[in-house]
Amino acid sequence: MRYLDFSDNNRKSVVPIRIKEARTARGYSLNDLAEKLDLTKQIISKYETGLVKIPIENLIKISELLDFPIPFFYKDKKFTLENSSEGITFFRSLRSTSKKTKISLEQNIEFMKEIYSFIQNYIEFPSFDIPEDLNLNYKIGIDDDYIDDVALKLRQYWGLGSGPINNLTNLLLKKGIIITRIELNSEKVDAFSKLTSIGVPFVILGSDKDSAVRSRMDLAHELGHIILHSHLQEHEFEKNYIVIENEAKKFASSFLLPAEEFVKDIYTTTLDSFVYLKEKWKVSIAGMIVRAHSLNIVSDEQYTYLFKQISMKRWRSKEPLDDNIKFERPNMFKEAIELLIENHIITAVEFLDNIGMGYKDIENLCFLPEGYFENYIENINKPKLKIIK
Question: Is residue 283 part of a domain?
Answer without folding.
Answer: no
